[in-house]
């Protein structure tokens, strides 16, 4: 069962998450980190950037694979997840950008891109530590509620709920892409360790469902109950 650690505030949660990621890098300098975007990891990446800048953390051998990317947004678009990762982390640490991977949202065949992405993860030796956020509907990466668990990296139609939730990052909801490429649930579940971070009262119910509800593709994150090493960090505010 996932282990739950609750925090009174976001700052303390970020500190804990950054410490767990930093210790992973310290224990295995060429770790493969699975990384997430969204608002929740921002404070975590800020701390990792700070620790690296002052010489306490070394990303030079770290490899990273991101969970997902919008279809149709070029890497340089300020709402693409590649852009987010560059700004929030990669530009601020001594990582070799050639060792950072984000699915290509412009690939002409997103499912083919997905197959290549799964092979890449395998070639890297699998993910040592996967960081996850969670959507209010229980999505992880962009694995939206569905009738079946989809294991492979694939193209996904975003739900209206996700489009609305992400509209805050765009000038207008009509600009939010309707499709994305996401790592599948096998890629996530094959990670050796999983760290899920969730922030705020609005995520309380979904975390409760993930921990104590039925394992069902209607709540994709519920599958984490079947993983042997999951830590959920939840901050109330
Ligand atoms: P958030 O998004 O961190 O911005 O809440 C998480 C997610 O949708 O996966």
Question: What does this protein structure show overall?
Answer:
43% of the residues are buried. The protein is built from 7 helices and 10 strands. It is 31% helix and 18% strand. The longest helix has 18 residues. The model has no long low-confidence stretch (mean pLDDT 97). It has a single domain, classed as Rossmann fold (3-Layer(aba) Sandwich), CATH 3.40.50. It has a 7-stranded parallel beta sheet, with helices on both faces. It has a 3-stranded antiparallel beta sheet with strand order 4-8-7. With 237 residues, the protein is an alpha/beta fold. It binds 2-phosphoglycolic acid.
CATH architecture: 3-Layer(aba) Sandwich
Name the helicity range: 25-40%
Output the CATH topology. Answer: Rossmann fold
This entry's quaternary arrangement is: single chain
Cα-atom Rg, whole angstroms?
16 Å
Major sheet details? 7 strands, parallel
Strand-and-helix sequence, N→C? EHEHEEHEHEEHEHEHE
**How many strand units?**
10
Helix/strand-derived category reads alpha/beta
Low-confidence stretches: none
What fraction strand? 15-25%
Entry keywords:
single chain, 237 residues, Rossmann fold, 7-stranded parallel β-sheet, 3-stranded antiparallel β-sheet, 10 strands, 31% helix, binds 2-phosphoglycolic acid
Topology of this structure?
Layout: E1 3-7, H1 10-27, E2 32-35, H2 42-53, E3 63-66, E4 68-70, H3 81-88, E5 100-101, H4 110-123, E6 129-132, E7 154-157, H5 160-166, E8 179-182, H6 185-189, E9 193-199, H7 204-212, E10 230-235
Helix pairs in contact: 1-2
The protein binds 2-phosphoglycolic acid.
